[in-house]
């Protein structure tokens, strides 16, 4: 959390942001200064403030247009999952959709918007899209929303209405977030957060629907996946204590 606060402070008080704020203040509230600038000459050349203002307006318009396009891409991402998600499709078909969604998510400027779909009552296709996006961008800030959602559905008799394959996807997200953070120096995720994660995953695996997920072949079901993750988390804790 301190790292995020420090990043926000450094961004807000960066020279570029402060300079932009000063320029906007002068343009809006200090017309007397603006008029004097209009009459200034630099190396004999008259300053064309109107042209500068026009250039700024054009830049703002371009930014607004770009934001609209990015919002369209985000809507398209969720819509693709809604249109192509099949609740009874074979796992291989769901995985194919997942690969396509991850390719789209990789091209998005940010995926923060997917967090709003991690809540009890969300449609399974939305939860799946959120999981695919977080797998592509396994940032520490997504750990808490994932854990909240897993806690909610663990207490729900119907497991939030999601398929086990989606639950497995969310476990992969948690795994990737913590393992990726373990390669950072310094790490962002603390020991207490890893211990909390382990407790949440144990409760999730103990849900009757998850507990019954025990494939007869060599693939992992949710209980065996969680068991492996708990061992990994122990290793991550040891890294952070040495």
Question: How would you describe this structure in keywords?
Answer:
242 residues, 11 helices, two-stranded antiparallel sheet, mainly alpha, 2% strand
What is the compact description of this entry?
This protein has 242 residues and is mainly alpha-helical. It contains eleven helices and two strands. The relative contact order is 0.07.
Order of helices and strands: HHHEEHHHHHHHH
Instruction: Please state how the strands of the largest beta sheet are arranged side by side.
Output: 1-2
Number of strands: 2
Q: Separation of termini? A: 22 Å
What is the radius of gyration? 25 Å
Poorly predicted sequence stretches spanning 5 or more consecutive residues? none
Structural class: mainly alpha
Shape: globular
Biggest beta sheet attributes: 2 strands, antiparallel
Percentage of residues in DSSP E strands: under 5%
Give the mean pLDDT.
83
How many helices? The count is 11
Overall helicity: 55-70%
Question: Could you walk me through the main structural features you see in this protein, from its secondary elements to its overall organization?
Answer:
The chain is mostly helical. The protein has a domain at 73-241. The chain has eleven helices and two strands. It has helices at residues 2-12, 15-29, 31-38, 49-84, 91-105, 124-136, 143-154, 164-181, 191-206, 208-211, 222-241; strands at residues 41-42, 45-46. The chain has a two-stranded antiparallel ribbon with strand order 1-2. α7 runs antiparallel to α8 (164-181). The longest helix has 36 residues, at 49-84.
């Amino acid at each position: 959390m301190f790292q995020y606060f420090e990043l926000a402070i450094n961004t807000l008080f960066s020279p570029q942001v402060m300079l932009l704020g000063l320029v906007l203040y002068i343009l809006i509230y200090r017309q007397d200064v603006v008029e004097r600038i209009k009459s200034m000459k630099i190396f004999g050349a008259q300053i064309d403030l109107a042209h500068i203002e026009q250039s700024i307006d054009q830049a703002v318009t371009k930014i607004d247009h770009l934001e609209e396009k990015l919002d369209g891409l985000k809507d398209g991402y969720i819509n693709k999952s809604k249109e192509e998600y099949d609740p009874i499709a074979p796992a291989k078909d769901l995985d194919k959709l997942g690969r396509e969604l991850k390719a789209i998510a990789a091209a998005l400027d940010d995926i923060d918007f997917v967090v709003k779909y991690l809540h009890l009552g969300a449609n399974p296709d939305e939860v799946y899209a959120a999981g695919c996006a977080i797998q592509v961008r396994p940032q520490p800030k997504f750990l808490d929303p994932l854990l909240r959602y897993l806690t909610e559905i663990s207490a729900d008799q119907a497991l939030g209405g999601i398929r086990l394959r989606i639950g497995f996807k969310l476990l992969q997200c948690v795994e990737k977030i913590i393992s990726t953070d373990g390669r950072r120096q310094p790490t962002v995720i603390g020991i207490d957060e890893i211990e909390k994660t382990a407790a949440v995953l144990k409760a999730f695996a103990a849900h009757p629907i998850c507990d019954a997920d025990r494939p007869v072949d060599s693939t992992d079901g949710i209980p065996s996946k969680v068991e492996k993750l708990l061992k990994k988390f122990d290793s991550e804790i040891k890294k952070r204590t040495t």
